[in-house]
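User: Can you predict the 3D structure for this chain?
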Amino acid sequence: MRICISAKGKELSEEADPRFGRCGYLIVYDTDSGEFEAIENPSVSMSGGAGVHTAQFVVSKGVKAAISGSFGPNAHATLSAAGVEMYSDCSGSVEEVIKRFKEGKTEKVSGPGVSKKNM
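Assistant: Here is the predicted structure, written as structure tokens:
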């Protein structure tokens, strides 16, 4: 399964980023093969609409789950409409987030907003 984690850098050892639409990088990770692609977020400098633009970009990458600290209402609606599940987890490195996701320890997001445990 292809998942996406918002990140502050382009390596798995980098810290996860709590921001979805304005994160520095998007790490697209294949949970089956362990291969990943680090993509500089094309929406990071947008004056408006960064969340929905980032969500559309993530959907275009064939991602089935997105992991970040928060998803705004427009990003949430875009990801939901595309069938992408959202999870809230941004503590530690991207590698740690992936490990928790694989172990089923990541909290599924039911609506837009900020998870209290990531504030």
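Residues 114-119 have pLDDT under 50 and may be disordered. The radius of gyration is 12 Å.
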